[in-house]
Design a protein that fits this description.
203 residues, alpha/beta, Rossmann fold, six-stranded parallel β-sheet
């Protein structure tokens, strides 16, 4: 008999991964790569995805290689432009509530760690959700900001973890039906995951 997943109500929040940030954010390419891996996992595990852009007219669209809301790509539950730093603006909040009133396990990736990721995390924690910050999928312009932000958010009650650790925690058991596909995905991204950890998790 197949097991039940350990995390039963997860959702992925993608914070402001936009074209104009490519040359500004520390190790941006690694953040994008890890996010791509998590998006593929969300397709396999049927996890809802929410995304934002910050002042899209000035800072550009969501990076095209993520394939959000494109033919063949993952379809988001909400993909919203904002001026607020937190992702949890009314449009995201309303779409999030449509999933059901239960408290959820929210995974956050994106930028910047000390601004938009921080304020999104604080808002979600305030509403009673469990928040996972993926350390190999968040960054800032100044790399020195990242460990300070993660330490603060850990103290606030968020869980700071890695993409691979979170994937296995989400499943919880090798007998879940999706295990083989997720294990294959982990293997596919093995070298990129290692590079991302070395770049983003040694600060």
């Amino acid at each position: 008999m197949a097991a039940t997943r350990r995390l039963v109500k997860p959702a992925l929040f993608i914070c402001d991964l936009q074209e104009k940030f490519r040359s500004a954010i520390y190790e941006y390419g690694r953040v994008i790569s890890t996010t791509q891996k998590l998006l593929k996992a969300c397709q396999i595990l049927d996890i809802p995805v929410f995304a934002t852009t910050q002042l899209r007219a000035k800072l550009g669209e969501t990076c095209s290689e993520l394939g959000l809301d494109s033919p063949g790509g993952i379809q988001t539950h909400a993909h919203v432009d904002k001026s607020a730093f937190s992702m949890f603006v009314p449009e995201i909040r309303d779409a999030f509530k449509k999933l059901g009133g239960e408290k959820r396990e929210v995974i956050i990736v994106g930028i910047e760690s000390h601004i938009c990721v921080t304020q999104t995390t604080l808002d979600l924690l305030r509403e009673g959700h469990k928040v996972y910050i993926i350390a190999d999928a968040v960054s800032s312009c100044n790399k020195e900001e990242v460990p300070i932000a993660l330490a603060r958010l850990r103290a606030e009650g968020a869980i700071v973890t890695t993409s691979e650790s979170w994937l296995y925690e989400c499943m919880g058991d090798a007998s879940v039906p999706e295990f083989k596909q997720i294990a294959g995905l982990v293997k596919e991204y093995n070298s990129k995951t290692k590079e991302g950890l070395q770049a983003l998790c040694r600060m």
